[in-house]
Amino acid sequence: MFNTKSLRLIFFGIGLIAVVALTAMNIYSMHELRKSTIEVAQEDKKNQIEEFTTQVRFRFFQPFRSIRKLDIEHLQQYYDDYNDFPDAFKDIMIDASLDSIFYDIYYSPHGEDHCLNDSYPMYKFNTQNRQFEIEENISTQVCDGLGLARSRMKVLIDEYRWNNKASFDTHRSMTLSMINLAEREIVGHLIFTINQDYLVNDYLAKNLIEKFGPSDETGIVVWLRDFMQEEILASSDPNIEHNRDFIDIRQRFPDLLENWSLHAKIIDSPTIAATNASLFRNLVVLVSAVLALFGALLFMFLTSKRERELAQRQAGFLANVTHELKTPLAAMQAAGENLSDGRVTDKDRIKSYGNHIYTETIRLRKMIEKLLDIARVDAGHNTIQLTPHKLQDLVQEYYDSHEAYVQSRGFRFELEAEPGLPDVLVDPDHFETIISNLVDNAIKYSFDDKEIKLSVQKTKTGVSLTVTDSGIGIPKKSHQQIFEKFYRLEDSMTAKTKGHGLGLSIVKKLVELNQGSIDLKSSPGKGTTFIVEFPVYQLEAETEKEMERHYEYVNKELQTSDYVK
Ligand code: ATP
Ligand code: MG
Fold this sequence. Notes:
Blueprint: H1 4-61, H2 72-82, H3 87-98, E1 102-109, E2 123-126, E3 131-134, H4 140-156, E4 164-169, E5 173-180, E6 185-194, H5 196-212, H6 215-218, E7 220-226, E8 231-235, E9 249-252, E10 260-266, H7 270-341, H8 347-379, E11 387-389, H9 391-408, E12 412-417, E13 424-426, H10 428-444, E14 451-458, E15 462-469, H11 492-495, H12 503-513, E16 517-523, E17 527-535, H13 544-560
Parallel strand pairs: 12-14
Antiparallel strand pairs: 1-2, 1-6, 2-3, 4-5, 5-6, 7-8, 7-10, 9-10, 11-13, 14-15, 15-17, 16-17
Bound molecules: adenosine-5'-triphosphate and magnesium ion.
């Protein structure tokens, strides 16, 4: 159902998808792990902040916890009888007035609101004589707190379970309403004015630093913010500035300090930093591994594709070569038979038969030579005789002996050589093979514009031979492949010519054996230029021994060269 090629592609695709899926899964789970670590750390910080606000609340109520145990009915009775409070109650007031968080304590009996009618008295606690004494100068701070507490209690009085209820007027005062639960009525209000300076600077600021600073150890900064005034009152780390847009946690105080809230920013704590670092490390390792895997997969895919192509071309070559060896032989056999029979007597026909045999022999010889060349180059047993030569002389020699032939094929054949060029070290036989293959190609792959130009020039590091034609050209994507064995372009023009894709692979190998390099410039439809360059021979001034050593080296290189089939 599937041929090998599509199977290979399918497996390659499955391999790629598997690698991509595995990588994506890994990255996703690493990311999730990091997220949950950070979330746990954040949750933990959130709890700490919540706990902090509860502690602050507790701090305000600390002096009054024992009021709950008092019998408020009894207290009311006592007050009605003696216009004073029992000692147990006064002890509590003493405790509260010793707490720096409060300034003063005021008492306003229920129903006699001084703030509404100043003919009613308002009392202030005097710690010295443990008495509530009438106070004339009542500040708005006290009246505001009292007013708030009264209106709150109106709503709560019928359902409230405890015998006292604290109400806060922001951070200015705390009012404790005492409740006679049996009668469901308010006995009186105790107003505590709050020492804001102490509260912020001595209590909250210090506790914030103690609990949450310094940020590089705890991984968090917490600010106390007055959001009505838009002002930061205290911070756990003064080095870090508050920025409303980058706050991770916002927390209000429960039932108290209504204008204030805590803002917190999570900074990379050691845990989060470690998680980030490990995520980064894992990603780097994973990406490198995946790239290596991709590379290996692609390499295997490409090499197997190449090998397959090479095998196909090799098989094609064998079939062709057999056919092409047989064709000239058959032609020669027929011509020879006719001649030997004596059947042909006409002089002209004898000559034409002779010519035929001659050209076919040359074709056969050329083909056998090429086969031998490739066999030698493949086996790495090519003998090399590197000797100093003037490249322009070798090219001139070739030109002189082939000019007539090339022109007979309808070509304009030119040679241009710079005079006085330095010597290069080449094997002249190899050079002959190189140049004749290049000219051969130029002839074969030119159809309309028939011109070939040879030129010899000095380059930066050596001397070069260029062979330029105005033929069909070679597309850029095939510039590498044409040097591979058995490779021929698959276009209709190339199809009109005969060949096995061996010439350029032999040329390249020989150029390299002679320490040279080969390159080409070509644009399809316009023509091609092959440039072969050999390094300048620089041993002239040295002794013969050194020269010998050089030859030895080159010959040794040759023996060990591993030309891949
Ligand atoms: P062989 O040289 O073995 O008889 P060939 O000429 O096809 O056969 P190469 O000389 O190796 O093989 O060339 C390989 C391919 O490169 C050719 O088939 C042709 O498509 C392309 N080619 C080589 N030289 C030229 C050129 N001068 N102009 C255009 N195409 C060329
Ligand atoms: Mg060729």
